[in-house]
Amino acid sequence: MHQLIRLDGTHSALVIEFAVGHMPTWRHYGARLGSTPLLSAWSTPALRRLPPGSMDTLLGAPILPCFGHAQPHAAALRSHRDGLQGIQSLVARSFSLENNGDTHSVVFVLHDSSTQEAAALEVTLRMDMHVPSDVLTLRTTLRNTGTAALQIDALAAGTVAMPAALQDVGYFTGQWAHEYQWQRHGVSPAGWAQLNQHGRSSHESPPTCFVMAPNADEHTGAVVAAHLAWSGNHHFALNRSDDGAWMLQAGEWLAPGELRLGAGESYASPALHLSWSDQGLNGASQQLHQYTRQTVLQWHGGAMRPRPVHLNTWEAVYFDHDLLVLQDLATRAAAVGVERFVLDDGWFPGRPNDRSGLGDWWPDAAKYPEGLGPLIAHVHRLGMEFGLWVEPEMVNPDSALFRAHPDWALQASGYPLSLGRNQLVLDIARPEVSDYLFDKLSTLLRDNAIAYFKWDMNRDLAQAQNAQGRMAYGAQVHALYALLARLRQAHPHVEIESCASGGGRMDLGVLRHTQRFWTSDNNDALSRVAIQSGAARVFPLEVLGAHVGPAPAHSTGRAQSMDFRGAVALFGHMGVEADVRHLNAADQASLSRWIALYKAWRHVLHTGTFSQGRTAHGVWWLVQTATQCVLGVFTDTAPAFNHHAPLTLPSFKTEHLWRVRLVAQAGHERARGDAMSAGLEAFAHEGLLCSASELRCVGLPLANMNPESALVLTLELQT
């Protein structure tokens, strides 16, 4: 006899078939169901017959496929004991149901059906449905219940049967300064896989994918978003099940010999978050955003305060720190409306460039003879907070720390040191290393009024081998989380940004300990449109750092208008990364206007529901609350037609009448003469009334704009 176990979200549901002594199997993941007499009447094996050429066993879609019994599913677990007993056959021992407010859970306990001592292991698979957001979270824990050590080569956080109609995959590729580049295609008959071995969540293959129906688009159709909340190596795969559907599997990628469990020891996987929606890519993204806001982000005092406008000094002065120059920079920043002044790299001793100094976390006596106090006092007198750049996980060979403790760096014995950006990685899993870093950082926070750490990580993990010769990728991530948690407990007011040469470490694992990502080192506004569109598929706007950079941009050499740069930076956690001392009067006034607009509308941008879509020659971003919305329409290529098609907003939800106003513009219309078109002029003055159905089905009459242009409109409910 089989038993059905069901978890319901607001719009989605899962159903698992359970029987003691058998592997639990997936019967449904997707839309929320009514009653289930058909599922209850028939077990999966009872519905199937043995096909020609198969093994003599009928199986469903297992929640944790095992290795060695010719099962047609990719193994979620691969383990052995010194090269022996590499076959497992996990079956259910028990399950339990939990109800913790908004989260409903089922916990399965599995054990190996073999009677051999070598098979002594226990697996706990936990499934949590966060009802308000419809996000399903899977975690797998393995415990060695035997007396001999157990080597784990692979253990997935979860294996999930996708709805059969989902045959496309979407994911991100990229590199430094070119993060979150969206890719989509049909899954080949051989399946699809993504592997990351960079030691961080990476620029190249961040830990997210979307499995979609071929007819799904931004606004309609079935989509499953999958995100692994882990800041290290990972793997994702879509493998064909024996009924033609795809099995999604994801987890931490383990390096050779990395995970060895002694008797009684356990390993817990990262969390795999899944979001099913029939409202297209936007629907799945919105559920991830809601889950992040409600369960992941940890704000001092329990609630997010308005996200302050930054000025980061990096692209203004680089390593050339001079107190008078920095004070002048702060004064000019405050004048345009900046609220937080962040001192970037170069403030500690032996740091004229990136070849020395990392690890020595105290102010440079030559650059700051009285410490950071005079600069911080000046910043505070201007009404701004003070923030500081640090890169605690790294060390330069040319530093006091490395000369005193060369063994503290991760390194492969017998091989030359492997440098990246002239630096090595500290083994922060060693207690003495973590204690050193906590002491230095805590002293900085205790002795100075610092409200913010920009926590950087400027290289991949290579030679990630600890003093015992064991691979230490995962240990490094856990040690990072522990250090961040320790600092935040000691200094709860301090906000921390996760930066890794830009967007190299963006995931919900590190976001539980931080409050912001540096989305990319690329401040070119045209590049940023694609980067921010990709990142916003996963993360809410309030955690995505978006800065107005210099022109020309240091990363690309291209120049855009101040208005275009401001429009793009508006849709994120806005900041400035340019030398505002050298702005002409027109650019200074423009920057001030964009910052003021951000302050006036950040309560919508950072709490509302985000959606996006494409036009014939650009993109649009919409953030909506029940009574107010902000819409950005960006033109990135020359229009292919003489007139702009009306802009429909299929994701617009709230009914009634709305007044639409044009509140800011970058660039010019593609038309004869300089006069504004009648439609834009009407939007720019008293605004136009539109019904919600008109916004969805008829569309806003917008003008064709030249490339690198933007229109920012607000919509307000009319009562």
**Biggest beta-sheet profile:** 10 strands, antiparallel
Q: Please identify, by name, the CATH architecture of the largest domain.
A: Distorted Sandwich
What percent strand? 25-35%
The CATH class assignment of the largest domain is Mainly Beta
Total beta-strand segments: 37
What's the tally of helices?
14
What distance separates the N and C termini? 58 Å
Helicity, as a percent range: 10-25%
Task: Give a quick summary of the entry.
Substrate binds at residues 176, 344-345, 421, 454-458, 499, 521. With 719 residues, the chain is an alpha+beta fold.
Keywords:
alpha+beta; Beta-galactosidase, Chain A, domain 5; TIM Barrel; Immunoglobulin-like; 10-stranded antiparallel sheet; 20% helix; globular; EC 3.2.1.22; alpha-galactosidase activity; hydrolase
